[in-house]
Amino acid sequence: MYAHDDTNRHDKKDTDIMVAEPELAKPPMYAVVMYNDDYTPMEFVVMVLQSQFRHSVDEAVQIMLSIHHFGKGIAGIFPKDIAETKAKTSNGLARKEGYPLLTQIEPYR
Fold first, then answer.
1. Separation CA 10–CA 21 (nearest Å)
2. N or C: which end of the chain has fewer CB within 10 A?
3. CB contact set of 30 (below 8 Å; sequence gap of 6+)
4. What are 19-28's pLDDT values in tens digits?
5. Which residue range or ranges hold the Adaptor protein ClpS core domain (predicted)?
6. What is the 3-state secondary structure (H, E, C) of the chain?
């Protein structure tokens, strides 16, 4: 006589359910915007773009020239918390050196 074992039995009324992985929404992105002024040296703006936003010299110069000619320019695009930190750090560096460079964030598209 064999013992009756139901552990591997699969009734037709049983159903397999596939659980989908939840889709994670991408965080809203923010542009870190630098504004032109008449006092902050161009070299300082380039230095901030390189040190805080990891731009190459050529990229930093192009962004600085855009800021100079158009009144403002985007230093980078990040999730909100990172953008806020980068703007605050950039403003802090400028104040430490006595420059009025203004860096703010705004929603990116």
1. 26
2. N
3. 77, 78, 79, 80, 83, 84, 105, 106, 107, 108
4. 888 888 889 9
5. 26-102
6. CCCCCCCCCCCCCCCCCCCCCCCCCCCCEEEEEEECCCCCCHHHHHHHHHHHHCCCHHHHHHHHHHHHHHCEEEEEEEEHHHHHHHHHHHHHHHHHCCCCCEEEEEECC
* The one-letter amino acid at 37: D
- Identify the bridge partners of residue 29 per DSSP, sorted by sequence position: 79
Tell me the pairing of strands 72-79 and 102-107: unpaired
Domains, the chain, with CATH or none: 29-107 (3.30.1390.10)
Q: Which residue's structure tokens are 């040190």? A: 51
Q: What is the pLDDT of residues 86-102, one digit of tens each?
A: 999 999 999 999 999 99
